[in-house]
Amino acid sequence: MSDEYFFLDPAHTDPKRIKKERDLARELKKSAWWKEKIRSGLCSHCGAKFKPEELTMDHVVPLARGGTSTKSNLVPLCKGCNAQKKLSTPVDLLFAQLEREKNGL
Question: What's this model's pTM, rounded to 2 decimal places?
C-alpha cells in the first residue's frame, strides 16, 4: 500500500479539528473502557497477543480522512500494524487483499 495516496478534504485535516480529536482520544485512553479494551492484549488487525501497554490506540477511520475519537472508531493495534496501516481504512485493506488475490499474489 506504499504507492497509494489519498485526496484529503481540507475540512478533515484542519489543525484545530485534529487537535480536538486527539485530545478526546487522550481522554478516552485514560478511561476504564480503554483499559478493558486492551486487557486481552490482542491486536485488532493481526490478532497477535501483546502486553496491554504495547498496544496503541488506532482510529479505524483516520482523523485525516474524517474519523472521530469515539469508542466506535477506536481499536487497539500493535505498533507494527499501526505503522503499516497509515491512512488506510478496513475497506482499503480489503480491496488491496482482493486485488492481490485477483493477481495471484
Answer: 0.84
